[in-house]
Amino acid sequence: MSHIHIPDGVVQDVWWILVIGYIITFLLLFYILKRLDREEIGRQIPLVGIMSALMLITMSVPLGFIPFHINLASLCGIIVGPRLGFVAIFIVNLILAFMGHGGITVVGLNTLIIGIEVFVGSKLYSIFKKRFKEPLSSAFATFIALFLSTVITFGIIFLITGSGDAFIHGHHDGDSIHFWGYSGWIAIFIIMFIGIILESIVTSLIVSFISKTKPELIDR
Questions:
Q1: How do residues 147-188 score in pLDDT, each as one tens digit?
Q2: Which CATH number is correct for 15-218, 3.40.47.10, 1.10.10.10, 1.10.1760.20, 1.10.3720.10?
Q3: Nearest-CA neighbor of 44 among 2, 72, 86, 74?
Q4: Which pTM does this prediction carry?
């Protein structure tokens, strides 16, 4: 769950961080779309649409037993590559913002954070695949990518809020997060670790299925 869940209007003193997030995101989108050829776009558009729809669902539905949702961003990078994966991430974050999942002002930052997850997951998968089988490679890549993006998320939230309270407290009623008898940052760290493990396993299972049914999708 490498998202910044801060509603619009909360950030005032460091609004420039949000602006920089949008500027970098748009520059990257321009660079990516400029370098894509028509053949690649035509071949990958259906996969981009499928992955965008899948991520839109998983990012908006909590798992239930823990306040965590799966991204599948690394899987997106593995299947469509880091460039089109970044485009898909921007589309998904924009739609989620209009649905009230975070603010429209943090779409740029969210796209960059999860875009890093897409890039790292895709590149590490290609590296690990030279030594391990596809499912294990995807699990390792997803774990590292999620850990990195989560650390970046915490860092930005501390920079924006000064304390991270917007992440610890509930988005609606302000109640602190409690988990296994712990509260605050300890509960958050436990939840994040469990979530990272779960998403790594889910990604590995999906990649295992794809490797048996349509291996060309993950042959990077």
A1: 998 888 888 777 776 655 544 444 444 444 444 444 556 767
A2: 1.10.1760.20
A3: 86
A4: 0.82
